[in-house]
Amino acid sequence: MTAQPHRRPRQVSRFALAKGFVTVVISTIVLIGLCLTFAPSSVAAGALAGSLPFAAILMIVGLGQMLVVQQGGFDLSVAGGVSLSVVLATHYPSGDDAQLLPAVLIAYTCAVAAGVVNGLLVGFVRLNAIVATIGMNALIYGVVFAVSGGVPRITTDLLAQVAGGESFGVGNAVWFAIAILAVTVFAMKKTIWGRRFEAIGANPLAAAAIGLNVRRHQMMAYVLAQLFYCSAGLLIAGITTQPTAFQGDSLLLPSVAVVVLGGTSLLGGRGFPISTAIAALFLNQLSQFAFAVGVPYSAQTIIQALALGLGIGIYSIHMPSFFGKINKLSNREEEDDAILS
Amino acid sequence: MMLSYLKGSIAITASLLALSCGAALAETPSWCGPNEASLALLDGFGGNSWRLVTTASGAAEAALCPSITDYQYADGQGNTQKAISDIKSFAAKGTSAIVVFGDAGPAVLPALKAAFAAGSVVVPYRVDVGGEAGKDYTKFIGSSFKDDGVSWGNWIKGILPDGGNVLFLSGPAGNSQGLDELAGMKTVLDDKYKFINPEPFDVTNWDPSLTQQVLSAEIAKNEKIDVIVSDFGPSLVGALPVFKKFNRSIPAIATSDGNSLGCFWTDNVKDNPDFKLFTVATGNDNVRLAEQWAVASATGGTLPTEEIFKAPVFEDSVSGKQSAVQCRADLPGSIYLSAVMPGDDQAKAVTK
Questions:
Q1: B304 vs chain A: nearest CA distance in angstroms?
Q2: ∠ at Cα B140 (B136, B142), nearest 5°?
Q3: How confident is the model at residue A225 (pLDDT cuts 50, 70, 90)?
Q4: Model ipTM over 0.90
Q5: B163 and B249 belong to one structural domain
């Protein structure tokens, strides 16, 4: 009797890891197979060189969102966070390379400030994460308007070289994303702080009971997430020569999508950074596939939505409990039959 | 003695006044009538450099007419409800003439109708808001996007007389501007010219990052792109270097102008032998014609003869007939040298 409750959660978590990683990897391989068969141009070297930087940006934003989701939260201030760093990195220097470093520092300072406020509201004031971050998003957009008047400005040459350039045949943005992914994986899986962070996400009450500082860790999730968004915004500012002031808007939904596709539970707990990164590649390649096949725009959005729905559907059916329920039902029917006979 | 002195000074003052009035009258355009009026320019969305230059052009045009006693501007910030409430509140204030960029289309028509019924001169421009001139509003000053398409088509015919592959990029799915431009091109280009984009155009939302993704997918897919047509030239600048990744020359481009695009052409034409550029004016001066109509109706001036703003051909790197490609590297990339307003003044407007 005492052994059972111990065993069950371990089985579930092992299964979740396998399912999250395996599903996203298989889906990506299948997609690449489809691309090779039906739209070989979408996996040509030039096409990948054009699209991978955008996958890298989605990857970074997705990792930020993952940290928040791990703590059972949601960060809807993605759009504002990304747009603000785009605007600060283009408006403040206004084409002057010498002003770029101060602009980047200002952007990161603003990101920390936004993250701290989000974290205080959710972690300490105990506001609902959706409400707090949607309010913060509006506030950040206020700053975006104050800085830019909503008007884009052309990026500096230096930023275009650093973020939009190439090293070893691959866009620098991709290298940045890989570095950020490596640091995240190491910090999450190999440091005491990371293990605590996951434990708190899985069960805040238990974590509090063993003396971990739940609120501080929850706040840190929002701060780190904003730092990730800020980095993604800086890359966008470099990659697109004349970015709009609302460049983050189109990243909100995909940021949540890659987290879910990567297998991180929306209820919090264990994070899957590598799966999240692969999911970002998957989503990006899916849209490239749709472009390459040349389907109408309406069909492109439907294909993406369907893929997302299927992805989420796979996780929402929890296999062991699903089969457990079926077994229970059939057992009950047998018992009923026995009683009746 | 005193009296004669007074008479003399009055005479001098009168003649000076007459002279100055004469000078002022000579500068006053015919559309500016004698009756005093207030004017408001209401934007549905003011958040890009094109709108800033347009807004500055609108203010400059209004300043030409001394009968305009009060000039106001409001930005709907892309929010249809704010745009509607702006129109209503300016009508309620008794503004004599209202010029509206109705980004939300027919959604703002009821507000325009109400303002017109309340006695204001109402001139929507550029975006079709539905309704009927004279009944729902004073006059609609559209822009002939179809003519842009015809201009592009003629140029494409000139550089590719034997036909070729055309890639057409426009803004959001189904936007009427893109459809009109396509209709214009199709009046000139026959079946020899193959549109290789999905019907009716590749959707870019006029967003530079989406444009970049769409264009790299199209370049990978199509080995032969002879000409790219886009109705927002500057958004191509970030995407065109993708051709280099495929070791291909940037092809000919027919589009609308922008300083960043002109400078990009100047910098890259040497390495890209096929890179020819043709632009029509982006149309910042559409607002000037709309204001002329509004002011003429409100102040009793002469109505302009033009009813539709026709964007003139601006740059042509092949013939150089209209104008060679222009680049002012000393000014921001986000200005439009095709506009009447001088580049330096535009720079002030977009960097303030």
A1: 32
A2: 150
A3: very high
A4: no
A5: yes
Q: B39 forms bridges with which residues in the sheet?
A: B71, B97
Give the residue extent of every domain in chain A.
57-316
Q: Please give the average per-residue pLDDT across B189-215, as a whole number.
A: 88
Q: Which of chain A's residues have a Cβ under 8 Å away from the Cβ of B54?
A: none
Domain count, chain B: 2
Cβ contact, residue pair B213, A54, below 8 Å: yes
Whether residue B227 is found in the same domain as residue B301: no
What is d(CA A62, CA A60) in angstroms, rounded to the nearest whole number? 5
Q: Tokens 């964007």 sit at which residue?
A: B311
**Pick from B264, B280, B296: which residue ends a domain?**
B280
| Rounded Cα–Cα distance for residues A250 and A135 (Å) | 18
Q: Which residues from chain A sit within 8 angstroms of residue B197, using beta carbons?
A: 294
- pTM for the full model? 0.77
pLDDT at A335: 64
Query: Which of A50, A243, A296 is nearest residue B208 as measured by Cβ atoms?
Result: A243
Contacts of B249 (CB under 8 A, 6+ apart): B243, B271, B272, B273, B274, B275
pLDDT tens-digit profile of B299-336?
999 999 999 998 888 999 888 666 789 998 888 887 89
Q: Are B108 and B44 in contact (CB under 8 A)?
A: yes
Q: Are B109 and B103 in contact (CB under 8 A)?
A: no
Burial of A151 (0-12, 13-18, 19+ CB in 10 A): buried
Structural domain boundaries, residue B182: 145-280
The CATH class of A57-316 is mainly alpha
The residue among B259, B280, B301 that closes a domain is B280
A 130-169 → B contacts, CB under 8 A: 145, 149-154
